[in-house]
Design goal:
single chain, alpha+beta, Ubiquitin-like (UB roll), 5-stranded mixed β-sheet, 3-stranded antiparallel β-sheet, 5 helices, 19% helix, globular, binds iron/sulfur cluster
Length: 236
C-alpha cells in the first residue's frame, strides 16, 4: 500500500508516495528532469538514460524513471556531472542515426531536438555512423523512418499496453537494433495494426509520422496517453 514519505530533491524537502519513481515525484512538484523514453501511462523501462540523477550514498548514477523513492532519500537532479553525461547521451543518439532536422516532418516539434537545445548541445563530438536503415512507407496512413528512431520503445509499449495489438518490437542488439513490425513484416502487411495512430502520437521524433505532412508540419498530440482513444476518428 502506498504511503506518504519525505525525500529531498535538489535540497528541497517534498512529500511523495512510496510507489512513485523519483521522476514521478519530481514531476508532481514541477521539477524538470530530462527524459525521452518516459511517457506517463506506460511502463517505465529506463531505455534512454537521460533522466539519470545522483542519489546521496549511492556510488553510481541512477535512472529517475525506474528508481523508486525511499523515505529520507536525497536526490540531485542538476549538476555539472549530470549535464556532461546527458549531453554525451544526446550526442550519441544524434551520431547513431541520420537526424537531418532541416528536412524532417517533425522539425520544430521534436522532443530530441528540444532537449538538445535545452541542454546546450551545439555540436556532436562523436563521429557520425551514417547507418543504412530502412524506411517503411507501406502503411496507408503512417510512415516509419528509422533514420530518426532513438529506440525509446514508446511505440512498442503504447501499442502493447494501451491498444493491445503488440505490432512493434526491437530486433537486434546495440547500435544494430531496429524496430520491426510483427516479426519483420512491412507495416502495410500487418495483421494486427488497427491504424489507431497511438504509436505515431507517442513517438518523440519524426520516426513515426502521418502521411501527407511536409517538413515541420507534423505535430504530435499532447494529451495523456489514456485519452488517446479517439484517434481513429481524428486526423489519422
Ligand atoms: S497504429 Fe495503433 S495498432 Fe497500429 S502499430 Fe500503431 S499503435 Fe499499434
Ligand atoms: S519509432 Fe519512435 S517511438 Fe518507436 S522507438 Fe523509435 S523513436 Fe521511439
Ligand atoms: S526517461 Fe528514464 S531512462 Fe529514459
Amino acid at each position: 500500500m502506498s504511503q506518504k514519505i519525505s525525500i529531498r530533491i535538489d535540497g528541497e524537502l517534498i512529500h511523495a508516495n512510496s510507489d512513485q519513481s523519483i521522476l514521478e515525484a519530481a514531476h508532481a512538484h514541477g521539477k524538470f528532469i530530462p527524459s525521452l523514453c518516459h511517457m506517463k501511462g506506460l511502463t517505465a523501462v529506463g531505455a534512454c538514460r537521460l533522466c539519470i540523477v545522483e542519489v546521496a550514498g549511492v556510488g553510481r548514477l541512477l535512472p529517475a524513471c525506474t528508481t523508486p523513492v525511499q523515505d529520507g532519500m536525497s536526490v540531485t537532479t542538476q549538476s555539472d556531472k549530470l549535464r556532461r553525461y546527458r549531453k554525451i547521451t544526446l550526442e550519441l543518439l544524434f551520431a547513431e542515426r541520420n537526424h537531418v532536422c532541416a528536412v524532417c516532418v517533425s522539425n520544430g516539434h521534436c522532443e530530441l531536438q528540444d532537449l538538445a537545445q535545452k541542454l546546450g548541445v551545439t555540436s556532436i563530438r562523436f563521429p557520425y555512423t551514417y547507418p543504412k536503415v530502412p524506411v517503411d512507407l507501406t502503411h496507408k496512413k503512417f510512415t516509419l523512418d528509422q533514420n530518426r528512431c532513438i529506440l525509446c520503445t514508446r511505440c512498442v509499449r503504447v501499442c502493447t499496453e494501451v491498444e493491445g495489438a503488440h505490432v512493434w518490437d526491437v530486433a537486434g542488439r546495440g547500435v544494430g537494433s531496429r524496430m520491426v513490425c510483427e516479426l519483420n513484416r512491412s507495416w502495410g502487411e500487418s495483421r494486427y495494426c488497427t491504424s489507431c495512430g497511438k504509436c505515431v502520437q507517442s513517438c518523440p521524433t519524426g520516426a513515426l509520422a502521418e502521411k501527407g505532412f511536409a517538413v515541420e508540419e507534423m505535430t504530435k498530440r499532447t494529451e495523456p496517453i489514456s485519452r488517446l482513444t479517439d484517434l481513429r476518428g481524428a486526423n489519422v
